[in-house]
Amino acid sequence: MDYKRLSKAQLEKELLLQQSRYDKYKAMGLSLDMTRGKPCAAQLKLSEPMLDQALLDDYTSESGTDCRNYGIVAGLPEARRFMGELLGVPGDNIICGGNSSLNMMYDTISAFMMFGVSNDEADRPWFEDKDRKFICPVPGYDRHFAVTELFGFKLIPVDINPDGPDMDEIERIVRDDPSVKGMWSVPKYSNPTGYVYSDECIRRLARMKCAAPDFRIFWDDAYTIHFFNDSPAEQLNLYNECVKAGNPDRTIMFGSTSKITFPGAGIAALAADKRTIDFLLSRISKQTIGPDKLNQLRHVKFLKDLNGVVAHMKKHAEIMKPKFDAVQDVFVSEFDAPVEGQLQWTEPEGGYFICCRTGEGMAAQVLEMCKQCGVAFTPAGSTHPYKKDPTDSYVRIAPSYPEIEQIRSAVEIFCICVKIALIKQLLER
Ligand SMILES: Cc1ncc(COP(=O)(O)O)c(C=O)c1O
């Protein structure tokens, strides 16, 4: 139904209908949480065999290291190779760390702030540039934006399209301003849109002319293998493209097994050119005498290699796909098809999120109504730098954690609230 075509009388009738649906739900005293992208219990269960003591029957790595002891700051060679397969680079280009890739992103920015991007005297610490800026594709991941905000960067939003961020705009921004030090990216099944950057976008990112010689792309490949259909989407490897373009140090890539095994006890890694790896290791070796190698060994023994991960992710997909389908079903039954200014939504083939757009100026109001009805969504604005969405229209839906029936109710309530807000706005005109 296109509400904009309805007469005043029809709108009033429709408002009564939607209001009564809303009141019915409100009376149920629901408490539904659709806020964060966490694996559900059934997904966590898939990796329980990894905790089996027999898996670690001996604690020695392939090179004979006793993994219970100190050492090997860059991570076990077999774990580096394993994470390298996930990120598409050789193990030598990997540092395998603790359980959190976000932690590694924070530490990398922190190192660049304090020391610059290398030991070269010409690479000045980022903190010296009082006008430092960071590009933030929007809608994007709130925790990325929070890190660079904390370190005093001016955050520059750039719109993201289904094939990646607006590259004309990015090329324009980086060309003349040496204070633009970097950009965030979630290149595959992006948070929150589910978009997959195109090969053309990746080539342009690798080749573009940057005024700042120390411009760096923080390539957060958090969902690289998190597909719902038969296989993960194919995508050019940014590091390889950067090498081809003569800019081998342009990107630092990140990934983890947080949503493959356990978010609280996975393994994380970063990938970069050898010079950056050596520079970061020279800092990390002052922070720690070595990561949790038992967990790294456990992961390699359990998942083995990329094929092992793909097979494991198919089991995740069996749990996730019906949940994402449930969201799409409710949207289609409530709105038929996406309509600009009414409700639009993405249809990801992987990842953890669906992104919606209400009419402009409505998202906060809609989410407040949902809250009053017992349904919590990620707060409006979270998808944008400084938590301010100038259009007040983006909403992130995270269907992984709740049960399917809960998802259906939550999304139905969301749709009812969108309708009520829309009709009220039309009636006020
Ligand atoms: C894009 C993105 N990057 C990183 C993370 C967190 O990763 P980790 O658990 O490895 O710190 C998340 C979690 O939701 C995410 O959505």
Q: What is this entry, summarized?
A:
By secondary structure, the protein is an alpha/beta fold.
Question: What are the defining features of this structure?
Answer:
Aspartate Aminotransferase, domain 2, 13 strands, single chain, 41% helix, 3-stranded antiparallel sheet, alpha/beta, globular, Aspartate Aminotransferase, domain 1, binds pyridoxal-5'-phosphate, 429 residues, 2 domains
Physical arrangement of strands within the biggest beta sheet: 2-9-8-7-6-3-4-5
Provide a count of the helices: 13
Strand content: 5-15%
The set of bound ligands, ions and cofactors reads:
pyridoxal-5'-phosphate
CATH architect. name of the largest domain: 3-Layer(aba) Sandwich
Percent helix range: 40-55%
Query: Between the first and last Cα atoms, what is the distance in angstroms?
Result: 19 Å
Structural class: alpha/beta
Q: Tell me the name of the CATH class of the largest domain.
A: Alpha Beta
CATH topology of the largest domain: Aspartate Aminotransferase, domain 2
Can you tell me the CATH superfamily of the largest domain? Type I PLP-dependent aspartate aminotransferase-like (Major domain)
Count of the domains: 2
What's the alpha carbon Rg, rounded to whole Å?
Answer: 23 Å
Uncertain regions: pLDDT < 50 for 5+ in a row?
none
Write the element-wise H/E pattern from the N-terminal end onward.
HEHHEHEHEEHEHEHEEHHHEEHEEH
Gross morphology is globular
